[in-house]
Specification:
Layout: H1 2-20, H2 26-37, H3 41-45, E1 49-59, E2 65-76, E3 82-89, E4 92-98, E5 103-107, E6 110-112, H4 115-132, H5 136-140, E7 144-152, E8 158-165, E9 172-178, E10 184-190, E11 196-204, E12 213-221, E13 229-241
Antiparallel strand pairs: 1-2, 1-13, 2-3, 3-4, 4-5, 5-6, 7-8, 8-9, 9-10, 10-11, 11-12, 12-13
């Protein structure tokens, strides 16, 4: 009984402390993240070219590796975003080229005209840049931001939770920023009514000054993060940023 009473008091104390924390507007959380933890806005707006390698390892629900993909991205960041991704898969050299308006797909230098393949390739290019170029994309893109207070993450640290939605998209994103350092810690993504992904930033690089992703884990979860399994691991290597 004494233990139950102790834990009840402790839980109430923790809740009270969270309630007393200053509630920042979501825009302020993102700006503080950029300025205090991720290099400052000017450092994101200066580079014109980015080259990096991305390695993706996918797992099934039993923990078996189902695919490993290592891609190299060559991105022009400004004045207009363009991107080329190259990799080898099943002994086929694959290449996606986005010129800022249109997307082109090649397999062993042969053009692929299938509309669904081109659409998927466009989404892959844009998603890769969206994920890597955070939290700046939250600052620069048109989105609806909603502050959802302070929560405790699984590593026992506290984070500001910001909900993000985009026009013409049913996908809902939640971003979690450490309340002390404002480092971007993780995401929760609602793909549809029953499918969620939790993506945890395990390690971030230190060379560019932006603290870009270096190693991430993605888990398939339910809404309360139970019944989850490791779906993917991602490794990033920044080759050049200039």
């Amino acid at each position: 009984m004494k233990n139950n009473y102790f834990f009840s008091i402790l839980s109430l104390l923790i809740f009270t402390l969270y309630a007393c924390e200053p509630q920042l507007a979501p825009e302020m959380v993102i700006e503080k993240s950029l300025e205090e933890a991720h290099g400052g806005k000017a450092a994101w707006e200066t580079p014109k070219r980015l080259v990096y390698e991305k390695t993706t390892k996918l797992y099934d629900s039993l923990g078996n590796v189902v695919r490993i993909k290592k891609q190299t991205f060559y991105n022009i960041l400004q004045p207009r975003f363009t991107s080329t991704a190259i990799w080898v898969e099943d002994n086929v050299e694959k290449r996606i080229m986005y010129d800022g308006k249109e997307t082109f797909v090649f397999e062993n230098d042969k053009p692929i005209k299938d509309a669904s393949a081109v659409k998927a390739a466009y989404k892959e290019i844009m998603a890769a840049q969206y994920v890597l170029w955070q939290p700046y994309k939250l600052y620069s893109d048109k989105a609806t931001l909603e502050s959802q207070g302070i929560v405790q993450l699984e590593d026992k640290t506290s984070a500001y939770r910001v909900q993000v939605t985009y026009p013409n998209s049913d996908v809902i994103w939640w971003y979690y920023f450490d309340i002390n350092t404002f480092v971007l810690k993780e995401n929760l993504i609602q793909h549809n009514e029953t499918t969620y992904s939790q993506i945890v930033n395990i390690e971030q690089e230190e060379n560019t000054g932006l603290r870009l992703h270096k190693y991430r884990k993605s888990f398939k979860v339910d809404v309360v993060k139970d019944h989850k399994y490791l779906r993917a691991e991602y490794w990033y290597k920044i080759i050049s940023l200039e």
